[in-house]
Amino acid sequence: MVNWSSVDKAAKEWLKEAGKSIVASFETALQIDTKADANDLVTNIDKEVEQYFTSQIRKTFPSHNILGEEGFGDEVQSTDGVIWIIDPIDGTMNFVHQQRNFFISIGIFENGKGKLGYLYDVVHNELYYAISGEGAYWGDLKLPMLEKVEVSEAVIGLNAMLLTSNDVKNPLISIVKDVRGTRSYGSAALEFAYVATGRLDAYISKTLSPWDFAGGKIIVEEIGGVVTDFKGEPLNLLKKGSVIVAKPGLHEKLINEYFQEK
Ligand code: 2AM
Ligand code: CA
Ligand code: CA
Ligand code: CA
């Protein structure tokens, strides 16, 4: 049996420590490299923060598995047992260019079921978290269940690149015309936190990796939000793919009225 309250306590303590070292790094010279393309950035801090979490987890919870963006975790092939899915800095471009609008994201799953989710806004020292079955929180404030909203009154997060496809049937073009407004923040974790707190009604992304959505999915689902791929299917915790996270009702409408081929 896993003692979830000791896992929760450790995760929160390590998030605070990691957050302090990230803030301290603002005074140092970053080493910036690129990954898949020239705009896909990674820094020494992304790597150091992931190494910090992996070493703490291995010392404290040696039976737990770790899936991390920067590759310091394990070669996770199945969702059996306890898995920590970690993004040490979500929104690296924001971290490098803005020194804000980036988060640490952690989702902890047991046999594929979300147990503990954390989205940490390092710069504002604000933690969004959920303990499955016990509620979701923004700091000390318990978050209310998400309420239904109409498409015409929805403010949704998405990346403008989604609109650059020439496909006239691109459902995103109709969605952008029909909603009240759109926002692009450049951090999936931030956008999940904003859906959880009602600042956004939905967030749509064509490709996210497990570490981009793991923490946010646990938090948003705890308060009745719906998280699926563009087909309305559940997300695979070990694969990248499309993601729609939205308030109840709105999610159904976006899938049924825009994404499903007529
Ligand atoms: P990251 O900052 O941890 O890489 C907007 O860029 C969002 O998409 C961020 O949450 C970012 O996470 C994620 N993302 C996923 N794949 C990406 C890629 N190839 N390049 C940039 N961002 C990516
Ligand atoms: Ca990245
Ligand atoms: Ca990410
Ligand atoms: Ca990252």
From TrEMBL:
Keywords: Hydrolase, Magnesium, Metal-binding
Pfam families the UniProt entry points to: Inositol_P
PROSITE patterns: IMP_1, IMP_2
GO molecular function: inositol monophosphate phosphatase activity
Superkingdom assignment: Bacteria
Reactions catalysed: a myo-inositol phosphate + H2O = myo-inositol + phosphate
Classification via InterPro entries: Inositol_monoP_metal-BS (IPR020583), Inositol_monophosphatase-like (IPR000760), Inositol_monophosphatase_CS (IPR020550)
EC number: 3.1.3.25
PANTHER family xrefs: INOSITOL MONOPHOSPHATASE, INOSITOL-1-MONOPHOSPHATASE-RELATED
Protein name: inositol-phosphate phosphatase
Species this protein is from: Lederbergia wuyishanensis
